Amino acid sequence: MSTRDGRSWMPGAGPEADLPCVAAITPSCNVERHTSPEPFDAIVIGAGYAGLIAARDLTTSGLKVLLLDGRDRLGGRAWSTDLDGHPFEMGGSYVSDVHRHVWREITRYQLGVKAGPERKDEQNKAILIRDGEERHASQDERNRLLRSAVMKIFNVDGAYGKLVMPTPLDEAALTVENRTAYDDMSIADRLAQLGDGLSADETAVVSSFVVMCTGSRAMDECSFYELLHWWCLCGHSPDAFFRNIGVYQLRRGQSSLARCIFDDALGSGRLAYALGTPVDAVRDGPDAATVRAGAGGRAFRARRVVCTVPLNTLRRIAFDPPLPADKLAAADTNRRNGGAKINSRCAGADLRSWTCSDPDNGLICYSYESGSAAAGTTNIVGFGQYPEGELDDAAVGERFGASIHESLRPHVKQIVFHNWSRDEYSNGSWFFPGPGLVTRYLDGLRRDHGNVLFASSDWSTGWRGFIDGAMQEGARAAAGIVKSLRVERL
Amino acid sequence: MSTRDGRSWMPGAGPEADLPCVAAITPSCNVERHTSPEPFDAIVIGAGYAGLIAARDLTTSGLKVLLLDGRDRLGGRAWSTDLDGHPFEMGGSYVSDVHRHVWREITRYQLGVKAGPERKDEQNKAILIRDGEERHASQDERNRLLRSAVMKIFNVDGAYGKLVMPTPLDEAALTVENRTAYDDMSIADRLAQLGDGLSADETAVVSSFVVMCTGSRAMDECSFYELLHWWCLCGHSPDAFFRNIGVYQLRRGQSSLARCIFDDALGSGRLAYALGTPVDAVRDGPDAATVRAGAGGRAFRARRVVCTVPLNTLRRIAFDPPLPADKLAAADTNRRNGGAKINSRCAGADLRSWTCSDPDNGLICYSYESGSAAAGTTNIVGFGQYPEGELDDAAVGERFGASIHESLRPHVKQIVFHNWSRDEYSNGSWFFPGPGLVTRYLDGLRRDHGNVLFASSDWSTGWRGFIDGAMQEGARAAAGIVKSLRVERL
Fold first, then answer.
1. Which of A284, A422, B170, B392 could pair covalently with B461 via S-S, beta carbons 3.0-4.6 A apart?
2. B107 contacts in chain A (CB < 8 Å)
3. CB contact under 8 A, B110 and A472
4. What pLDDT score does B192 carry?
């Protein structure tokens, strides 16, 4: 099984396609041979985690579901390819025990979790770059700088945010009084507020780290509230913060989990699906909605529709009646996230303690060992930002390859990535909102539109922008449909 | 719907039975009219949360399940009765966002969560009793004492336990090198180690708090490792620790959640059930097991059995072939938890900031406002310990009623409780192990026995003894069965 998504690039050889992926589904469609295709109880648009969980919960609750996606694989913005028996994560990948919806699925499907190898506190393995000057430090020093910076940044109230946002319970977090104040504040504003409170070293390390969180070097474009919300979800603890956003990954890769959920739904006998079938129109009626999808413009009918496409692609689908103004305004306002994630397969196992913090690098700002790798090799993941405009795959390989730190570059055998800069189904990478967006539009984004429900990590009340938020939203949509259809049947 | 479990007691009026409960199921059995009763894919013994989740996951995965329980209601050691439209929790009740399996169900069934009313920091509302002397303090002072004591207790390594038990991820927590050392240590040992490190006030407050955790005033009978494991699951943070074990409850009570899970399984059309039908024997064979249950000794057959009865009632069931020695030794070794939970309905809303810490009270050691209550009333929950031997319901009412603090007693209109001291299906209250038990027996308790799987919160690797651990175990058992039966079918 392979997917058209993602590329492998080797120095001098250019990009190669057709990466193996257990979440690429063959046959790509079972609608033709599905015994009773219509009317479905629900059509789920998008087979990312929100769509997969919605489809699984709906089918296992006894409802007939059609799952549609434009891609040839499951997982949306989270998927993995397997090379030499080791998963390489192309998008969202980090999990943790506080990602409660993910964790329940890990228990359900009995999947293993691994931490990145313990970084040994070797001298000179942490490269810190500041204002063009480079120095080598111990991991311990780097961690101390980052931790200290993060604690200062989140200490907005003398109580590390506990007064401003006391509880991570979703509902409560939403009603925090001064949410607006912190949402109108950008991360740049917050750093400016701290002024000299951060040392130059702290600023450099945390600036590169923030790119990993936001996908953007332009900190004035990123809401400070959003980052504070992550912090609150981690119980206002720096240990938990770092552990929950960038350490643990699935042993067999994200696509193994996506496949488990899909197989579970399929096993119900009530799942029809069609991959490679992008939706272009949804027309709602009093009792059912019609969804037009695929090259032939085929129409499917269902009593409910769950639309899980990312905020930045809401405009791709023509809704009739049209979407309300607030949803459209949110889609038009939201920044297109240029966050980049580049996997470098390197020769040499002694690179496993290597990290690099390079905030002014135009492309890769924050790099560290991530995930298992074949014996004698190391997988270094680099987080950064695509330059303005779209890059073709060859250009991504060339330009990001050239931006890898010069001490690492000779060891790089292969670069593996998904070119999110020109992905028509996500229109950018993960969700990280600009100032004011969440306060203004979150409620509107979560609202149903006739028989159409909207479920995406982009408007989760919990781990928004994470896999967990997607699963939460999928579960919410399914629960709403199960409840309303049961009432209709009474 | 009402249950035979639980009692309401009013001063001078004696105990009354038949409390309303949404998880009492009528009719109590659907086996007779179930279309294809045998052979089942699985029989689940016990309809507590482990059994309910197992039954729900199995039936929604397409398998035919028979769910058996001796009680007339669902929920096992967690259930609620509704009085004046407010739930009173009779057993396990506290939830939190880090209880990841519970939280997923809260999302799935769209249930609300509430915190106890914010305790206002009024003067003199916290009663602290030490060596027979009583003084009135502010909530703020009480909280400071408790927090400071707890941090000292868990600071076993100068890093608040982070070195000893660095990660709450289940698997890793199990392989901690020095688990044995801390498991052989009792809570009394740990307090002795601290010696004068705790002030007399800290010792008094934390001793009453520990009774709420362990259900026992005999701290030498309780493993320190177990408490340290809770702390680790809370990310080594005192805020998280208190928030996760005694603040949030379900708005409509635990029985509302149990009922949702049951209805979900029933909606699959694949759930047969028989309440009031205790199991007394399980005979295993090469392809199936036979379960004998109920007054008539009726036999049911299934390819797999999930046994979810608590450790202290494992001996109730005659297994053939007999259980391995380690499971039996664990059942024989485990202390019978005499933890008591007594709800007092009090007149007067100004009691909502009232707390009492009374470590040497023979019966109720730790009391505070808990849960919603009708206008003008307050529900005070008291945690303590049943005296040695069984008490009948009248004696529980009389003796616990008389042990309520004298300043509260005149306000008490009604006491509501489940008499766990003489409950044949749990043989005690929640699980809190003695020193050494977990290290010695956890792996053995989790092991399958032929076609019989064992799932109970008592041997969860996560929130052991909590509702979350029960759900985790139920999900684990269901996942194992789904996987093995699918393989058999290939």
1. B170
2. 101, 472, 475-476, 479
3. no
4. 97
| Nearest CA among B439, B422, B227, B228 for reference residue B330 | B439
At position A358, the amino acid (one-letter code) is D
Give A171→chain B minimum CA distance, Å.
Answer: 9
The closest CB to that of B169, out of A113, A475, A480, belongs to A113
Instruction: Average the pLDDT over B474-479 and give the result.
Output: 96
Two structure tokens written together for B187: 């809570």
End-to-end CA distance of chain B: give it in Å, rounded.
44
Nearest residue to B126 via CA among B348, B344, B356: B356
Whether the predicted interface score ipTM is above 0.90:
no
Furthest-apart CA atoms within chain A: distance in Å: 71
Nearest to A107 among B112, B167, B476 (CB): B476
For residue B239, give every residue at least 6 positions away whose Cβ sits within 8 Å of its Cβ, in sequence order, or none: A162, A235, A236
Q: Do B101 and A99 touch (CB under 8 A)?
A: no
Structure tokens at B204: 């008094």
Of the partner residues A61, A168, A480, the one whose CB lies closest to the CB of residue B97: A168
| Distance of alpha carbon B43 from alpha carbon B34, whole angstroms | 14
pLDDT digits (tens, 9 = 90+) for A277-301: 999 999 999 999 999 999 889 999 9
| Shortest Cα–Cα distance, B111 to chain A (Å) | 11
Domains of chain B, start order: 2-78+254-335+428-489 (3.50.50.60)
Please give the mean pLDDT across all residues of chain A: 92
> Which of the pair, B177 or A309, is modelled with greater confidence?
A309
Tell me whether the omega of the peptide bond preceding residue B11 falls within 30 degrees of 0, making it cis. Answer: no
Encode pLDDT of A111-163 as tens digits.
Answer: 989 887 656 667 778 999 999 999 999 989 999 999 999 999 999 999 999 88
Residues in chain A with CB shorter than 8 Å from the CB of B264 are: 61
What's the CA gap between A31 and A25, in Å, rounded?
Answer: 13
Residue B463: closest CA among chain A residues belongs to which residue?
A: A97
Q: What are phi and psi of A404, to 5 degrees?
A: -65, 140
- End-to-end Cα spacing for chain A: 44
